[in-house]
Amino acid sequence: MKRFLITTVQVLFISVFLIPVQLLGQEVAAWAADSMLCCGSSTQLYVTRGADTTENLTYTWSSDPQTPGWPTNEQNPVVEPDVTTTYTVEVWDGLETVFQSFTVVVYYPPVTDLGEDISACIYDSVVLSANVPDMQYLWSNGSREPYIKVGCTGIGIDVQQHWLEITCEAGCIGRDTIMVAFEFAECTYGVAEYGDESKITAYPN
Protein backbone atom coordinates (compact mmCIF):
# COMPACT_ATOMS: atom_id res chain seq x y z
CA MET A 1 0.00 0.00 0.00
CA LYS A 2 1.57 3.25 -1.11
CA ARG A 3 1.13 6.50 0.76
CA PHE A 4 1.73 9.77 -1.01
CA LEU A 5 2.94 12.63 1.17
CA ILE A 6 2.85 16.39 0.87
CA THR A 7 3.89 18.99 3.43
CA THR A 8 2.71 22.56 3.79
CA VAL A 9 5.23 25.36 4.37
CA GLN A 10 6.23 26.58 7.82
CA VAL A 11 4.96 30.08 8.65
CA LEU A 12 5.95 32.50 11.45
CA PHE A 13 3.00 34.19 13.22
CA ILE A 14 3.90 37.65 14.60
CA SER A 15 1.96 39.25 17.48
CA VAL A 16 2.20 42.81 18.75
CA PHE A 17 2.68 41.41 22.25
CA LEU A 18 5.06 38.51 21.61
CA ILE A 19 6.62 36.63 18.74
CA PRO A 20 5.80 32.91 19.11
CA VAL A 21 6.79 30.38 16.43
CA GLN A 22 3.74 28.37 15.40
CA LEU A 23 4.05 25.49 12.97
CA LEU A 24 1.00 25.76 10.73
CA GLY A 25 2.29 23.30 8.13
CA GLN A 26 1.26 19.68 8.54
CA GLU A 27 2.18 16.48 6.78
CA VAL A 28 -0.85 15.17 4.92
CA ALA A 29 -1.11 11.62 3.54
CA ALA A 30 -3.93 10.31 1.35
CA TRP A 31 -4.40 6.82 -0.08
CA ALA A 32 -6.88 4.04 -0.86
CA ALA A 33 -7.11 0.81 1.10
CA ASP A 34 -6.92 -0.96 -2.28
CA SER A 35 -5.27 0.77 -5.22
CA MET A 36 -6.47 -1.99 -7.59
CA LEU A 37 -10.09 -3.16 -7.64
CA CYS A 38 -12.30 -5.52 -9.55
CA CYS A 39 -15.36 -3.81 -10.98
CA GLY A 40 -18.17 -4.06 -8.44
CA SER A 41 -15.85 -3.95 -5.44
CA SER A 42 -15.45 -1.08 -2.99
CA THR A 43 -12.55 0.50 -1.13
CA GLN A 44 -12.13 3.13 1.55
CA LEU A 45 -10.21 6.34 1.00
CA TYR A 46 -8.07 7.71 3.79
CA VAL A 47 -6.50 11.06 4.61
CA THR A 48 -4.45 11.71 7.73
CA ARG A 49 -2.71 14.72 9.18
CA GLY A 50 0.39 15.17 11.33
CA ALA A 51 0.16 13.98 14.91
CA ASP A 52 -0.13 16.16 18.00
CA THR A 53 -2.21 18.91 16.39
CA THR A 54 -5.22 20.74 17.76
CA GLU A 55 -6.20 22.41 14.53
CA ASN A 56 -9.59 21.69 13.00
CA LEU A 57 -9.15 20.55 9.41
CA THR A 58 -11.76 20.50 6.64
CA TYR A 59 -11.67 17.78 4.00
CA THR A 60 -13.23 17.96 0.53
CA TRP A 61 -12.98 14.99 -1.83
CA SER A 62 -13.49 15.16 -5.59
CA SER A 63 -12.84 12.66 -8.38
CA ASP A 64 -12.22 12.30 -12.10
CA PRO A 65 -14.50 11.03 -13.49
CA GLN A 66 -17.05 12.51 -11.13
CA THR A 67 -18.43 10.25 -8.41
CA PRO A 68 -22.23 10.55 -8.06
CA GLY A 69 -23.13 12.71 -5.05
CA TRP A 70 -19.68 14.27 -4.77
CA PRO A 71 -17.85 16.44 -3.69
CA THR A 72 -18.03 15.03 -0.18
CA ASN A 73 -16.67 16.31 3.12
CA GLU A 74 -16.27 12.90 4.72
CA GLN A 75 -12.75 12.36 5.94
CA ASN A 76 -12.57 8.69 4.89
CA PRO A 77 -15.32 7.90 2.36
CA VAL A 78 -16.04 4.47 0.87
CA VAL A 79 -16.17 4.36 -2.94
CA GLU A 80 -17.16 1.79 -5.57
CA PRO A 81 -15.73 3.01 -8.88
CA ASP A 82 -16.72 1.22 -12.08
CA VAL A 83 -13.81 2.72 -14.05
CA THR A 84 -10.27 3.74 -13.18
CA THR A 85 -10.65 6.93 -11.13
CA THR A 86 -8.36 9.65 -9.80
CA TYR A 87 -9.33 10.97 -6.36
CA THR A 88 -8.28 14.35 -5.01
CA VAL A 89 -8.66 15.54 -1.43
CA GLU A 90 -8.48 19.20 -0.44
CA VAL A 91 -7.37 19.76 3.15
CA TRP A 92 -7.92 23.21 4.72
CA ASP A 93 -6.68 24.26 8.15
CA GLY A 94 -8.30 27.70 8.15
CA LEU A 95 -5.24 29.40 6.70
CA GLU A 96 -3.76 27.10 4.10
CA THR A 97 -5.07 24.57 1.61
CA VAL A 98 -3.19 21.52 0.37
CA PHE A 99 -4.21 18.96 -2.24
CA GLN A 100 -3.37 15.31 -2.63
CA SER A 101 -4.31 12.99 -5.50
CA PHE A 102 -4.00 9.29 -6.27
CA THR A 103 -5.55 6.81 -8.69
CA VAL A 104 -7.56 3.63 -8.10
CA VAL A 105 -7.26 1.26 -11.05
CA VAL A 106 -10.38 -0.77 -11.89
CA TYR A 107 -10.14 -4.14 -13.64
CA TYR A 108 -12.94 -6.13 -15.23
CA PRO A 109 -13.60 -9.87 -14.92
CA PRO A 110 -12.54 -11.86 -18.00
CA VAL A 111 -15.35 -12.47 -20.48
CA THR A 112 -16.23 -16.10 -19.82
CA ASP A 113 -18.61 -17.64 -22.36
CA LEU A 114 -19.06 -21.38 -22.76
CA GLY A 115 -21.77 -20.88 -25.38
CA GLU A 116 -25.25 -22.30 -25.56
CA ASP A 117 -26.28 -25.53 -23.85
CA ILE A 118 -25.34 -28.63 -25.83
CA SER A 119 -27.16 -31.81 -26.79
CA ALA A 120 -25.01 -34.70 -28.02
CA CYS A 121 -25.24 -38.41 -28.74
CA ILE A 122 -24.59 -40.63 -25.74
CA TYR A 123 -21.68 -42.20 -27.62
CA ASP A 124 -19.96 -38.89 -28.33
CA SER A 125 -17.68 -36.68 -26.29
CA VAL A 126 -17.78 -32.88 -26.11
CA VAL A 127 -14.89 -30.43 -25.77
CA LEU A 128 -15.66 -27.35 -23.67
CA SER A 129 -13.53 -24.21 -23.92
CA ALA A 130 -13.92 -20.46 -23.34
CA ASN A 131 -10.94 -19.56 -25.57
CA VAL A 132 -9.48 -16.89 -23.27
CA PRO A 133 -5.67 -17.01 -23.45
CA ASP A 134 -3.14 -16.26 -20.71
CA MET A 135 -5.54 -16.63 -17.78
CA GLN A 136 -5.99 -18.95 -14.81
CA TYR A 137 -8.70 -21.58 -15.26
CA LEU A 138 -10.72 -23.63 -12.81
CA TRP A 139 -13.32 -26.10 -14.09
CA SER A 140 -16.04 -27.78 -12.07
CA ASN A 141 -14.13 -31.07 -12.30
CA GLY A 142 -11.01 -29.46 -10.80
CA SER A 143 -9.09 -29.16 -14.06
CA ARG A 144 -6.99 -26.04 -14.60
CA GLU A 145 -6.51 -26.59 -18.33
CA PRO A 146 -7.93 -24.17 -20.94
CA TYR A 147 -10.41 -26.84 -22.05
CA ILE A 148 -11.94 -30.13 -20.88
CA LYS A 149 -13.42 -33.13 -22.67
CA VAL A 150 -16.64 -34.56 -21.27
CA GLY A 151 -18.74 -37.59 -22.09
CA CYS A 152 -20.99 -40.21 -20.53
CA THR A 153 -21.04 -43.98 -20.09
CA GLY A 154 -23.10 -44.57 -23.24
CA ILE A 155 -25.56 -46.66 -21.26
CA GLY A 156 -28.36 -44.11 -21.02
CA ILE A 157 -29.37 -40.48 -21.04
CA ASP A 158 -27.12 -38.21 -18.98
CA VAL A 159 -27.53 -34.46 -18.28
CA GLN A 160 -24.44 -32.73 -16.90
CA GLN A 161 -23.71 -29.24 -15.62
CA HIS A 162 -20.23 -27.81 -16.03
CA TRP A 163 -18.87 -24.43 -14.92
CA LEU A 164 -15.68 -22.52 -15.55
CA GLU A 165 -14.03 -19.72 -13.58
CA ILE A 166 -11.37 -17.59 -15.27
CA THR A 167 -9.17 -15.35 -13.14
CA CYS A 168 -7.18 -12.41 -14.51
CA GLU A 169 -3.89 -11.12 -13.09
CA ALA A 170 -5.72 -8.61 -10.89
CA GLY A 171 -7.72 -11.42 -9.27
CA CYS A 172 -11.05 -10.63 -10.98
CA ILE A 173 -13.11 -13.74 -11.73
CA GLY A 174 -15.40 -14.40 -14.68
CA ARG A 175 -17.72 -17.41 -14.51
CA ASP A 176 -20.07 -19.25 -16.84
CA THR A 177 -22.10 -22.46 -16.66
CA ILE A 178 -23.20 -24.82 -19.42
CA MET A 179 -25.52 -27.82 -19.54
CA VAL A 180 -24.54 -30.82 -21.66
CA ALA A 181 -27.25 -33.42 -22.39
CA PHE A 182 -26.24 -36.81 -23.81
CA GLU A 183 -29.31 -38.33 -25.50
CA PHE A 184 -30.21 -41.19 -27.85
CA ALA A 185 -32.18 -38.72 -29.94
CA GLU A 186 -28.94 -37.03 -31.00
CA CYS A 187 -27.42 -40.24 -32.29
CA THR A 188 -27.30 -41.14 -35.98
CA TYR A 189 -28.33 -44.76 -36.53
CA GLY A 190 -27.10 -45.00 -40.10
CA VAL A 191 -30.39 -45.19 -41.99
CA ALA A 192 -29.67 -44.96 -45.73
CA GLU A 193 -31.54 -45.97 -48.85
CA TYR A 194 -29.91 -47.79 -51.73
CA GLY A 195 -32.35 -47.93 -54.61
CA ASP A 196 -35.33 -50.00 -53.54
CA GLU A 197 -33.52 -51.34 -50.51
CA SER A 198 -33.08 -49.78 -47.10
CA LYS A 199 -30.04 -50.44 -44.94
CA ILE A 200 -30.30 -50.02 -41.18
CA THR A 201 -27.25 -50.09 -38.95
CA ALA A 202 -27.99 -50.38 -35.23
CA TYR A 203 -25.32 -49.61 -32.66
CA PRO A 204 -25.46 -51.84 -29.58
CA ASN A 205 -26.36 -50.44 -26.16
Structural summary, described in words:
The chain has no helices and 16 strands. The chain is mainly β. It has a 4-stranded antiparallel sheet, with no helix packed on it. The radius of gyration is 32 Å and the shape is rod-shaped. The two termini are 63 Å apart.
Residues in helices, as a percent range:
under 10%
Give the distance, in angstroms, between the N- and C-terminal Cα atoms: 63 Å
As residue ranges, the low-confidence spans are 1-24, 191-205
Count every beta strand, where a strand is a DSSP E run of 2 or more residues.
16
* Overall pLDDT score: 80
Radius of gyration, whole Å: 32 Å
Strand order of the largest sheet: 1-2-4-6
Number of helices: 0
Please report which band the strand proportion falls in: under 5%, 5-15%, 15-25%, 25-35%, 35-45% or over 45%.
35-45%
Largest sheet: 4 strands, antiparallel
Overall structural class, as computed from helix and strand content, comes to mainly beta
SSE sequence, one letter per element? EEEEEEEEEEEEEEEE
> Which oligomeric form is depicted?
single chain
**What would you call the shape?**
rod-shaped
